[in-house]
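Quick one: structure for this chain?
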Amino acid sequence: MQKIITPDMLIQWEEIPPPKFKKDYPEKLIMIKKMPPRSQYLGGQYFTSKELETLISNSSVLEIYRRAKDGSHMPAILQCRWWCPACGHEHDRVIPESLLDEGKAVFVKPKGMKKHSQEDGPLVLYLGIPYSDPDPAVRQQRFEHSQRCSAQLIQHGYAVISPICMGHSIVSGTDIPESFEAWKTVCFRMLEASDVLCVLKVEGWEKSIGLHAEIAHAQHLGKPVLFLAEKDGQYSVETPMEVKKAWA
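Got it. Here's what it folds into:
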């Protein structure tokens, strides 16, 4: 089965104990580890067998947003959602709560960036970051972010295409324009050669014309868009839920 690249695949997930009270399940993250019997997911808003196989294969994480039980003798269900980076839409499905009781699903929390196994083949990440600014000190700072983030990604086993790491040295001390318009064709060709667009959220990223153009181009190509954030000198992939809240 072909894997779909999602943010979850670049995150190291840690299994955690379930909340003490089931009323606290909403907003918690879970991962389905094993296929349930077919009788547990037939019909309605339940996952299809193909969807379940894809979720398990891609280590996808779901967010519980509601626990429901219709009558004292009916099994409880969990209404879950996850955000697809390829189509940019949120998807809702239902799973039986019994999956947690049976150990077929577990509660998880993010624990840093996952190392990429070379056995899975190369994964090429395009690192997008705002660059253009009238202040040379700002451009230098963004270049240094690109350097550090690229190094961390490479150390974790990923192949990285970083136009800022390349372009900063070229435009510095020359009359070559540093605007996105001057580099658009080059950046788009490099993005087309990559598997994933990774957006590094440094100060000013929301207003970057070039970065938004790269996001739109990646979505047009059907490439996943992931978001990275820096904390205490380390870069981590944001969960789909964090991305959704940031864009809300």
